[in-house]
UniProtKB/TrEMBL annotation:
Pfam families: PRC (PF05239). Residues 2-74 form the PRC-barrel domain. InterPro entries: PRC-brl_dom, PRC_barrel-like_sf, Spore_YlmC/YmxH. This is Sporulation protein, YlmC/YmxH family. It comes from the Bacteria. Gene3D superfamilies: PRC-barrel domain.
Amino acid sequence: MKISELQAKDVVNIADGRKLGQIYDLDLDLRRGVIHAIVVPGESKWFGFVSSGHEWVIPWRQIVKIGSDVILVRLEESVERRGYYLPDEAAVD
């Protein structure tokens, strides 16, 4: 799968059914060739020009399913839109 194909999919949290947005970046370990997390931008405040400054940094292990037009993730209510990362040993090979 190409990165551009991932970026075209909506990211949805199955814990609450909320659409988080679309992927705009990946957190990669180039040395090991693994993806640590997907990054989804925060909401735009005014015609897409001003963002909230927060982003979802969703660990790869939180991805439940990658479908043809949606990526399902499981984020619990306690997770806030401030971003977080996996430690190196938890990366997906």
